[in-house]
Amino acid sequence: MRLVAAELVESRQILPGQWLQSFHAPELASGSRAGQFVHVRTGDYSGLVLRRPFSINTTDAATGIITLHFRTVGRGTEWLTRVREGERLDMLGPLGKPFEVDSRSRHLLLVAGGLGMAGVRMLADEAIRDGRQVTILFGALSANHVYPSTLLPDEVEYVVATDDGSMGHHGYVTELVSEYEAWADQAFACGPHPMLARLAQLAAGRRERLGVAKLGRKRGGGKVDPLGSAAARRKAFLQVSMEQTMGCAVGACLGCTVMGVEGPLRVCREGPVFASDEIAWPDR
Amino acid sequence: MKAKKKVVIVGDVRVSALKQNSKHKPASKGRSGPAVPATTATAGATGLRPRVETGNTAIADLGTPFVAQPTLAERAALDRIDLAVDLAPDHGGLVLRSPILVASGTFGYGVEYGEVVDVQRIGAICCKGTTRRPRAGNPPPRVTETPGGMLNSIGLQNPGVDAVIDKYGPIWQGWQVPVIVNVAGESIEDYVEVARRLDGVPGVAGIELNISCPNVGKGGLQFAIDRDAARAVTAAVRRATDLPLLVKLSPNVADVRPIAKAIEDAGADAICAINTLSGLAVSADRTHAFLGNTYGGLSGPAIKPVALRIVYEVAQVVSIPIVAIGGVTNLDDVLDFLACGAVAVQVGTAIFADPELPVRLGDELRADCLRRGLTSYHPLIGTALPKRTGAPSAKGAEYRP
Ligand SMILES: Cc1cc2nc3c(=O)[nH]c(=O)nc-3n(C[C@H](O)[C@H](O)[C@H](O)COP(=O)(O)O)c2cc1C
Ligand code: FES
Asked: Is-above-0.80 flag for pTM?
């Protein structure tokens, strides 16, 4: 974690109201892992007193470039769209815990809803670099909100669902999961809370069905990793990247909590990535 | 009991106050001494009173502070400027090396920002509100931005006083920066019990009572809005500990002055003002309140005028040091609070945007003193208070919407 002056090198609108910005920030480009985020200071402190958290969308250590993908949802993000190339933004990062991929996992299922693509996008790059196969299931309201496939690596299988059926599967992205569940060694998701809750439910069902196999592995391994540890996450079938409104983003203010099964969890510190069984999901 | 002579300067009138110190026990229990940094241990003798005997030189408005890189000679001159302040001059001393503190709830336990902030250069750290037993806090969401500020409803999430002592005490003990533990409770017994446990713990330099909590014994009425309850809780904690005792005022009252006076009379060493203002935000679809707890506390630049008004009022009715809190964002804010009678300030919400601010404000205050030809910042204190003392001014009470 450090304070970095990140220079805007490119800014473009990739979808209605959605922006992709590239920044020159070598410290972040080489020191970050998929799932982590930056906390960006806005230009007008007298009005906008809080930084804005953004997932690190992609990094390129060779060029020192990181990208952020966001939607204009308020004054902070609108301000960000007006920043000009060459201007420097104050970013605090990299923050939070990254996704943990088991070294034996060959097939990764990434599930993203809307802006949730920004949460898992970098994991696709990391996985492909490491020789794994990646399928991204992506859900959006309609065709004109679908993340452009041209912005994804060629190696990725990209499957789309839209709520209105204007592209791909007609319905929720979660309905596509059952087809891939057997193929996937691990799944990673980011998106609206109800989507994550549904995926967690599916993952819990899978665990029950495969209960014997899991017990077998446990007996073989001997020890149980504590809930929330990197090792426990690495063994989880589903990891989710959660969102919450934030103050400090370093664990100091306790503003960003979500309810976990063992009490409140700070999204900025214990998260934003959690194993799905760490979270107290609403009643199923 | 020894009577202490105290010289207080307000405006151009010199007031000598004899204060019978009988309510205070001498610091005698097995505490490892007040957190006085070695370099400033002698400062108590050289003018560390909250209001200082420097006459009433009018302080010119010097506009934007000086920030250019100092030369070697300037560096030496800067180092000579005295930023030390004692927040418990009548009770064993709580000497800080800088009058810029960090506010409770915005800096955790001092460790969270460690990678980006040199915490040793902060005047003092007020840690997150600490209670007798662990608290899980309020349901999320807990924070949201508002124009020029933010609302929070953390709900005093903390692991309880024993866990705080076990986990952070050893870390704080190794620090030069004093850590003041912010204490909350729902009954006088709660406050007293937490204070007792903190008493004598190495690494704990003082207590800041957060009395903006519902008093369960009094039907949930906050201690902070009830003069008698504020007096009672302060007096009870005063009896329970030798630690320097700061009491933090709530702005959510009709008139803060009788409450401040009661807290002073009950033996507090200093008054901190202010805590957050009660507020509300609505969800995006306007079907419910945004925060999980419905209400939240407003902080940030939006509350600075309220904080200034309260500091200004309290400064005219108490003679113990005042620590200002509320919307401090830059040196001008610090100077405004000093001018209204505060001897130190806490930075809260602004840390989220600018974690280095508390350290930088210390440097800027030093540079500002040098520019004004001062060797200490103390002449900057109280310059905006009404010049006539005696009967407290009614000014400021006139507009009460
Ligand atoms: C997220 C957050 C948590 C806070 N928690 C506490 C607390 O536990 N105890 C307390 O006395 N004040 C607490 N406060 C109030 C601050 O210490 C301070 O009084 C207030 O924020 C005003 O200062 P500011 O405008 O500089 O933030 C909290 C404030 C914020 C923003
Ligand atoms: S945002 Fe402050 S603890 Fe997470």
From this structure: yes
Check residue A242 and report its DSSP letter. -
Of A42, A253, A263, the CB nearest to B106: A253
| Residues A34 and A174 placed together within one structural domain of the fold | no
Q: Which residue has the tokens 């007008």?
A: A44
In a domain, A284, yes or no: no
Residues A171 and A66 in one domain: no
- Does residue B299 line the site of ligand 1, with CB under 6 A? yes
Name which of B213, B278, B277, B273 is nearest B248 in CA terms. B273
What is the rounded CA–CA span in Å between residue B229 and residue B235? 10
B358 touches chain A (CB under 8 A): no
Of the three residues A64, A95, A126, the one that is the final residue of a domain is A95
Give tens-digit pLDDT for B350-360.
999 999 999 99
- Confidence band, pLDDT 50/70/90 cuts, at residue B43: very low
Report if residue A216 sits inside a domain. Answer: no
| Cβ within 8 Å, pair B140-A259 | yes
Where residue A231 sits, what CATH number does that domain have? Answer: 3.40.50.80
Segments of B82-186 assigned E as strands: 85-86, 95-96, 100-102, 124-126, 143-146, 149-152, 179-183
CA atoms within a 13 Å half-sphere pointing along the CA-CB vector of A262:
8
Gap from CA of B324 to ligand 1 centroid (Å): 12
**pLDDT at residue B301 is higher than 90:** yes
List pLDDT tens digits, range A71-121.
999 999 999 999 999 999 999 999 999 999 999 999 999 999 999 999 999
Residues of chain A with Cβ-Cβ distance to B144 below 8 Å are 245
Report the gap between the CA of B204 and the closest CA in chain A (Å): 19
What residue numbers bound the domain in which A14 lies? Answer: 2-95
Q: What CATH number is attached to the domain comprising A15?
A: 2.40.30.10
A213 pLDDT band, cuts 50/70/90, is: low
Calpha distance A212→A202 (Å, rounded) = 17
CA separation, residue B237 to residues A102, A243, B29, B94 (Å): 53, 41, 15, 17
Residues A261 and A128 in one domain: yes
In a domain, residue A218? The reply is no
Distance CA B304, CA A46 (A): 11
Residues A81 and A113 in one domain: no
How many other C-beta atoms can be found within 10 angstroms of the C-beta atom of residue A173?
Answer: 28
What are the distances in angstroms from CA B193 to CA B31, B211, B239? Answer: 17, 15, 11
Predicted ipTM of the assembly: 0.93
Q: Which class for A85: exposed (0-12), middle (13-18), buried (19 or more C-beta within 10 A)? A: exposed
Residues A136 and A237 in one domain: yes
| Number of domains forming the structure of chain A | 2
- Residue B257 in contact with residue B396, Cβ under 8 Å? no
- Select which of B127, B213, B272, B369 is catalytic: B213
Q: Tell me which DSSP letter residue B54 carries.
A: S
Is residue A132 located within the same domain as residue A232? Answer: yes
* Inter-helix orientation angle B161-173/B188-198, to 10°: 30
Whether residues A119 and A153 share a domain: the answer is yes
Residue (of B132, B112, B278) closest to A253 by Cα position: B112
DSSP for A125-172? Answer: HHHHHTT-EEEEEEEESSGGGSPPGGGS-TT-EEEEEETTSSSSEES-
- In chain B, the domains with their CATH numbers are 5-77 (no CATH), 85-386 (3.20.20.70)
Residue A181 clears pLDDT 70, i.e. is over it: yes
Do A71 and A136 reside in the same domain of the chain? no
Nearest CA in chain B to A266: B140
